Amino acid sequence: MSSGHVAGGANSARGGGDALAFAQRRLARARELLDEFRLDAFLVSAPADVRYLSGFRGEDAWLVIGHHLALICTDSRFWEQVAEEVLEFQLERIERLDEGAVAALQRELGVQSAVGFQGHDLSYASYRRLRRLHRGRLRNAGDSVSRLRMVKDAGELAAVRRACTIIEDGLEQVLSSGLIGRTEAEVAWELRAALHERGVQDLAFETIVAAGERGALAHAIPGDRAIKPGDLVVIDAGARVDGYCSDITRTVAAGGIAKAAAEVYQVVLEAQQAGVAAVRPGVNGTVVDAAAREVIQTAGFGEFFGHGTGHGVGLCVHELPRLGRTVGDVLTAGMVHTVEPGIYREGSYGVRIEDTVVVTDAGCERLTPSGKELRIVG
What we know:
It is a single chain. This protein has two domains: about 1-145, Creatine Amidinohydrolase, Chain A, domain 1 (3-Layer(aba) Sandwich); about 155-375, Creatinase/methionine aminopeptidase superfamily (Creatine Amidinohydrolase, Alpha-Beta Complex), CATH 3.90.230. It contains nine helices and 21 strands. The chain has helices at about 15-35, 45-55, 80-85, 95-110, 125-135, 155-175, 185-195, 260-280, 285-300; strands at about 1-5, 40-45, 60-65, 70-75, 90-95, 115, 140, 200-205, 210, 230-235, 240, 245, 250-255, 310, 320-325, 335-340, 340-345, 350, 355-360, 365, 375. Helix 4 runs parallel beside helix 5 and helix 6 crosses helix 7 (about 185-195). The protein is elongated and about 70 Å long. The N and C termini lie far apart (about 60 Å).
């Protein structure tokens, strides 16, 4: 049943005129999608989208958004939290997310209402329950709601900037203390501690530290492999500040490396610089990928670069826009994404260099501006 009051308000942690105005603008943009998809309501289930639209930071909540309807549906574990965090949405007290949300929208809009859902977020079992519960038209709205998050506002950019500054400071602390003789896992834990010292409670993702031949694992899990002189060491890490992520990768040399490996590093650096230079409004992400990939292919390493050149960064560390070989999104000023080409030689080494950037009117700004020339660490 409905709580009969609007969550948030004067006692909300997000209260105040600016927060209310932001919430109203975001809700208005979501409502514009109703006409685009010819719907009476949206069911928003993806946690990052729920947070973006409502401010709710907890788990297990769905939003019901209609032209004149805004409900946040959750169970008793989160009612107090909703009251503290959420603006513009009325709390719907429920026991089961899908059943409660559908019952609420049918009560308000009728059993034959046309409803959009987030097919990329729902499990098949949840979709089947939704289909069974609602007799009206159901339409998969895909990632349309998630796309609202691609262009960051000033508050979002401030959080991403802070997250980028913290991860760079923490990484510098770790590298300055040396790597040789320490295990990958020890380095990862030291970086986590450095972030906690700077007030960060959450990592954007589990830190990747991969030494020597393990650098060929693009998403290696840090292990007990000790770092030795001559190793290339890939460190990929991010912090989360006010819910927003940073993402950076630096590859460093432990005590010096062979000339051939140094030459590969230079190829990746030039590819990364070419990708960054290609970023500007109106360009498709595939163009950025092509700019970086061409450098690697020309150098003869094309077969060793298998992933896309970048991805969006925000409330999720991997989100829209896409910057891949065959799939990309048109870039717009205010979008935040990575540029991260790499070369991975199985059984030998890996090199990846990654920046988080924000698209500007004239190109882009690196939010992770630390040096990228090959660094020798002890």
